[in-house]
Design brief:
alpha+beta; Vanillyl-alcohol Oxidase, Chain A, domain 3; 6-stranded antiparallel sheet; 4-stranded mixed sheet; disordered N terminus; binds flavin-adenine dinucleotide; binds 2-acetamido-2-deoxy-beta-D-glucopyranose
């Protein structure tokens, strides 16, 4: 069906059915519709599809692979056109369900050697927000088809008995945690949400409240198995093919497909004491956060978020306590401004520490400067704490408010020396009644990010940078709130304010080469060299929009 007739259902409009004769102008046509939609403020959301216009020769080529036994689907590509953002929907030519690393090597080799325009995107769960795991007219490799977790509690002898876990690129972090906990072990560094794939997060960084101490997830990988853009399967580590190892981690899927990763483990605690405390003053909030991530830090997880000074249950102060009834308007200091800052920390412990944990946490909180009456605590298992977003997922999903709606997210790394200005110019301005989503702000220590990793962090002398995450949900029109185009404009405005502040985007999205070059800064030349080395035809992760596919081998120019 997809290649005889293209259907586009634009929200509310009755236009559509673009037939084969219109194929060459489909790109332009989509643009016009997008512009029209944005002008009339219609959310150009879930229904936009840029259909597949695959060349007959490419189709025949892919069909020949299917004939050789590759599990390939040409019809059921809908899931591969979707992601968490719901902002872009590009139709691939085919979706591959690999049964082993050999399948991945075969398809990458075949596509790399063909004189075609085919590209390949590894796809985890498509939790990207801007089509980064999509491949227009290309091949999407559904990595979750290949799973398998192996815990090595005594290491392999070579790494002095240090425990590790080996997982496939398509395994989920939550499953890695469950498997490790059976041995009383757990990885050290996390994301706030665990239903993400190993390959997808390691292509970015994987940041959470433990990153200040252990670095991001990509700082906790011992070894990778990667299928490069040439179709070669390579084991790499800091000592074995280190160029490929460091290029791939945080490499936005540009150099190879992560088929397996070996991740360091530690002894898992049993429980966590989980604390939130409110501040009215940004300077006091950040001083305490930076104190808490310093080398003597007693807490094992440090985050923070911004709430509006109102009772909005999504992002007002009523979202702070673990029991909503534990807070009331009367408790908010009269001098508080339009926003409040919430520190979030945990102290992990085990049964043996049960009788001292209260005292220990009290003494840790003593030097901090939050409002004493605005302190909230709870206690939960280590697993439940790490998987804390899952309950929210189940609730929101049943109401059609989880992966069913658009998420115009923006994530930034802001140097510590710019954060006060950022607070004045952005945080105090944007957080309103209809922000609708979390706004996270917490510091990270740059020394935990190996300079050889591909990921771009703020350059300059600051030892600390903040992650600031604007995680807005586009609620259905019925519920009111800003339009999607307003939210996207807000993001553009924030990026404009950020430019002189030497911020970097995390989970980045850029329009063109010039912007990508600026994004990677001093890492750009190496990034381009690595592309030439490991994916010379630029077939991998085209949705990142950094390089374009080359039919013949020619030098990749660095702008
Ligand atoms: C609810 C929610 C909470 C989140 N919380 C955090 C958080 O706390 N911290 C944080 O750092 N991030 C967080 N993220 C972002 C998350 O890290 C990214 O979405 C990331 O891309 C992982 O998603 P995924 O596994 O679905 O990968 P995808 O979106 O499917 O892929 C991401 C990119 O990696 C490429 N890719 C996928 N698999 C592979 C592979 N095996 N080898 C090579 N390239 C591959 C894709 O082509 C694509 O370019 C969150 C996302 C959501 C939806
Ligand atoms: C299509 O793919 C989705 C997700 O990959 C799967 O859940 C669904 O069962 C498939 N449908 C058919 C008809 O094969
Ligand atoms: C950052 O980490 C380094 C190395 O562990 C440490 O020496 C330094 O004190 C840390 N800085 C801060 C501000 O936490």
């Amino acid at each position: 069906m997809a290649d005889t007739q293209f259907r586009q259902h634009a929200a509310t409009t009755g236009i559509m059915v673009v037939t084969r004769s219109l194929a060459p102008v489909v790109g332009w046509w989509t643009c016009v519709i997008l512009i029209l939609l944005s002008q009339i403020n219609v959310a150009c959301s879930s229904s936009h599809l840029t259909p597949s216009v695959i060349a007959a020769t490419d189709r025949m080529f892919l069909e020949s692979l299917a004939l050789q036994g590759m599990q390939l689907s040409f019809d059921n590509t809908t899931a591969a056109t979707k992601d968490w953002g719901k902002l872009r929907h590009l139709e691939p030519a085919a979706v591959v369900y690999p049964r082993g690393v050999e399948d991945i090597a075969t398809i990458v080799q075949a596509v790399a050697r063909s004189e075609s325009d085919l590209t390949i995107a590894a796809r985890g769960l498509g939790h990207s927000t801007n089509g980064q795991a999509q491949a227009h007219n290309g091949v999407v490799i559904q990595m979750t088809a290949m799973r398998g977790i192996r815990v090595m509690p005594l290491g392999d002898g070579a790494s002095k008995g240090a425990p590790f876990v080996e997982a496939m690129g398509g395994d989920l972090w939550v499953d890695v945690l469950k498997a490790s906990l059976e041995f009383g072990l757990a990885p050290k560094s996390w994301t706030d949400y665990l239903h993400l794939t190993i390959g997808g997060t390691l292509s970015n960084a994987g940041v959470s409240g433990q990153s200040f101490r252990h670095g991001p997830e990509i700082s906790n990988v011992l070894q990778l198995e990667v299928v490069t853009g040439k179709g070669e399967t390579v084991d790499c580590s800091p000592t074995q093919h280190p160029e490929l190892f460091f290029a791939t981690l945080g490499g936005l899927g540009q150099f190879g497909i992560i088929t397996k990763a070996r991740i360091a483990l530690e002894k898992a605690p049993q429980r966590v004491r989980w604390v939130r405390a409110l501040y009215t003053d940004f300077a006091a909030f950040r001083r305490d956060q930076e104190f808490l991530i310093s080398a003597i830090s007693p807490f094992d997880y440090v985050e923070g978020f911004v709430v509006a000074n109102n009772a909005n249950p999504i992002n007002g102060w009523s979202s702070v306590p673990f029991e909503a009834s534990d807070i009331s308007e009367a408790m908010i200091p009269g001098h508080a401004g339009p926003i409040l800052y919430c520190l979030e920390v945990t102290k992990a412990y085990s049964a043996a520490d049960l009788h001292t944990i209260d005292e220990v946490v009290e003494s840790m909180l003593a030097p901090l400067n939050f409002h004493r009456e605005l302190l909230f605590k709870t206690d939960t298992s280590y697993f439940k704490f790490l998987d804390r977003l899952h309950e929210t997922e189940v609730q929101l999903s049943s109401r059609g408010l989880w992966d069913q709606i658009p998420h115009p997210w923006l994530n930034l790394f802001v140097p510590a020396s710019s954060i006060e200005r950022f607070d004045m110019l952005v945080l105090k301005k944007i957080m309103t009644q209809d922000f609708s989503g979390p706004l996270l702000v917490y510091p990270l220590n740059k020394s935990k990010w190996d300079k050889r990793l591909s990921v771009a962090v703020p350059e300059g002398p600051d030892e600390i940078f903040y992650i600031v995450a604007f995680l807005r949900n586009k609620l259905p029109e019925l519920d009111g709130g800003p339009t999607l185009s307003t939210m996207l404009e807000d993001n553009d405005n924030i990026l404009r304010v950020c430019e002189p502040l030497r911020c970097k985007q995390y989970l980045p999205r850029h329009q063109d080469r010039i912007q990508w070059k600026r994004h990677f800064g001093s890492k750009w030349d190496l990034f381009v060299q690595n592309k030439q080395m490991f994916d010379p035809r630029a077939i991998l992760s085209p949705g990142q929009n950094i390089f374009s596919r080359r039919r013949r081998l020619v030098q990749v120019d660095s702008v």
